[in-house]
Amino acid sequence: MIPLLLVISVSATTADALNSLGLRQRKMMERLAEMSIEYFL
């Protein structure tokens, strides 16, 4: 049996990694949007 605490910590770490990745991706998309707006103006 896998200890429940281990499962919780692993899922929390994975969620944290996905969260930071999502934040980075959103920042990148915002940068791209700003650049394209500046390019078209």
How many distinct helices?
1
Strand content: under 5%
Helix and strand sequence: H
- Mean pLDDT across every amino acid position: 85
The biggest sheet, with number of strands, parallel, antiparallel or mixed sense and barrel status, is:
none
What does this structure look like?
There is one protein chain. This protein is mainly alpha-helical. Helices cover 90% and strands 0% of the residues. The radius of gyration is 18 Å and the shape is rod-shaped. The relative contact order is 0.09.
Give structural attributes.
mainly alpha; 1 helix; 90% helix; rod-shaped; signal
Please outline the helices and strands.
Blueprint: H1 4-40
Keywords: Signal
Signal peptide: 1-17
Can I get a quick summary?
The protein is mainly α. The protein is built from one helix and no strands.
